[in-house]
Amino acid sequence: MAAAVVTLLFVGAAAETIVSRTVRGAFVEEQLADQRADAASIARAMAQADDGEEPVDEAQELVDVIAARPSVAGVELVDVDGRVVAAADRTQIGEVEQGPIVEVARTGRASAGAETEAHESGADLEYRVPLEAAGRRLALETDQPRRVLDARITAVRRQLVTLGLVGLPVALVVFFLVGGRHLTRRHASAVERSLTDALTGLGNHSAFYEAAEREAALANRHRHDLTLAVIDIDDFKFCNDRLGHDYGDRVLRGIASALAAGRRGDACFRLGGDEFAVLLPHTDLLGARVALESAVERANASLPGIHLSIGVSVLSSAGGDVALLREQADVAGYEAKRTTASVIVIFDEISSSATLAHPERVRALGDLIEHGELDVAFQPIWDLDRNEVLGYEALARPSAQFGFKGPGELFELAEKVGNAHQLCEIARRSALRCAGDLPPRTLLFLNVSPKSLERNMLAGTTLVDAVGSAGLAPHQIVLELTEHVTTRLRHVVREISRLRSLGFKIALDDVGAGNAGLELLCSVGVDFVKIDRSVVSSAPDDASALGVLEAVIAYATRTGATVIAEGIENETQLALVREPATADHAPRHSVRAGQGFLLGRPASDFADAAALSH
């Protein structure tokens, strides 16, 4: 009898330990799953914020709802830099956190653990899950008093003691068959919700990384192919802003349906915003291209006018590494968006010329585009014949909060990843917002990327309306076209002609820098030709540069365009562009207008720019 009691006590103690651990693990997973569902709700609310509303305000409302639950002691929403963007305790907003929550935001991997600083009643439990919303990577952390978990375990212990009086084997069977099944069903349902994108029904960001790691492990172990495609909807933000969020949601659901209707075995995900991914196991690059072309055809049939950019990479080219696989697919996608010549770009086909953009820099660019505003400075352009200001060029500068060294790094990255036209749009909008005080009888020079014309971003009366809202007229605006090579020259020429017919003046920028500006100059009339600073700076000492200068001046003058020399920084350069020297010392065509630090530095408003002029 004594042996039986001892055995029963021993088995009971072991069972209690096992069950307590099981309950603790299941409870933590259940809480993480519920929190993933909350994070998905926050991401959806931020993405659907109305025009004029801050996405973080939508997040704050849901944070307040979560914080009101009896089992919650605190809630924070933190970005990758550790800055608190929403919190149950609003005094925490703007503070900078460190530790596990920042790691979750950066890596996209959920975690749970005890609070680092314990209270008298013990350390709270912290649950942290990642989310991506409004172009930002964030982490949601919920604090829960440990007593909630302790109460669950205590309840289980009481059940075990009670059932133990009747019979431990029966109690264990009842617990696992009844309570365990209920807990398992609830846990499985919460996990499924947390891994599903609510709008499209596809797997979400977390589901993608779980599946990618799993499929990559299988592909590496069994040495079979695994291909990743990253799909982006071109200009979705501007489409969403102009046509409304309901239309944008229909587009997202349509793309999801087109992808999901593909081959059995392929896994489709919505990574966030307008970005999707497809994992294609046991598929080489040729097979992936065929499958993706079919998906594009389905998307075009249901959503005419929507343009996709698709980047593709294969695991073997990434050395079996999932992070590198994603990065290579992103780079290929950037190239597809940049060229507009091909919907699908495979990384292996561009790897010799591709430069991997740092993910943090790309995310910063995305944040800036989502922010939708740039700082602007105005640099005077002088009429050298009349000795008066001809106009001001609006120069965009990134705010320091985004971490770019200057506009050069920003626009170079935007060009590389295919966002130059979006950045150009934001720069133009920011400049017009500050242009209400343009002095009379002067012009405002605004930079325009040919990509904006290729993508019809100035179609119709879009630009006329924007200029009118700033209190200006089209004849006061000069659109500076950078002379980068364009694959749709005929379309760009038509757009330039249309804009000129609306009253806008056209300038060709950076002429002589070795791009395709003269081709545009031959194809359509322009009002101004701006000679690149590299030609102006080299001409005093370089016969070849001087020849380019003279040739551009002669050709532009013959077409009726006014020549502007950029980058004038000293008196020697100024004297040269006024009357370029020649071998026979005969006077030649001179430059009518000039721009550069010698003549005036950029300033935040027109009055300061004029005051800084020489």
From TrEMBL:
SMART domains linked to this entry: EAL, GGDEF
Domain EAL, first and last residues per copy: 358-614
Segments forming domain GGDEF: 224-349
Keywords: Membrane, Transmembrane, Transmembrane helix
SUPFAM superfamilies xrefs: EAL domain-like, Nucleotide cyclase
Regions that span the bilayer: 160-179
Keyword Transmembrane helix in annotation: yes
GO molecular function, one term: cyclic-guanylate-specific phosphodiesterase activity
InterPro entries reported for this sequence: Cyclic-di-GMP_PDE-like, EAL_dom, EAL_sf, GGDEF_dom, Nucleotide_cyclase, Rev_trsase/Diguanyl_cyclase
One protein family per Pfam: EAL
PROSITE patterns found in the cross-reference section: EAL, GGDEF
NCBIfam families, per database record: GGDEF (TIGR00254)
Protein's UniProt name: Diguanylate cyclase/phosphodiesterase (GGDEF & EAL domains) with PAS/PAC sensor(S)
UniProt source species: uncultured Solirubrobacteraceae bacterium
